[in-house]
Design brief:
By secondary structure, the chain is an all-alpha fold. The radius of gyration is 12 Å and the shape is globular.
């Protein structure tokens, strides 16, 4: 996985923190289009590597990315 993909997955994990099911995501429009804006206060001042580490520490979400 490239660094850019790792960062994108980390942003997704942080956005979905607290969601327990696909139903939670479907009910919450903010979760349907995860962006850095929703988590900007949490990641302010962090490097890309630190954001990835934070997502790995705080999220129990498992995301698999397949290569092209």
């Amino acid at each position: 996985m490239t660094d850019q993909q790792k960062l994108a997955v980390a942003v997704l994990k942080l956005n979905l923190e607290g969601a327990n099911s696909a139903y939670d995501v479907a009910r919450n429009p903010e979760l349907q289009n995860p962006t850095i804006g929703r988590i900007k206060d949490k990641v302010a001042g962090l490097t890309a590597d630190q954001i990835i580490e934070l997502a790995d520490r705080t999220s129990s979400l498992r995301i698999e990315v397949s290569g092209q």
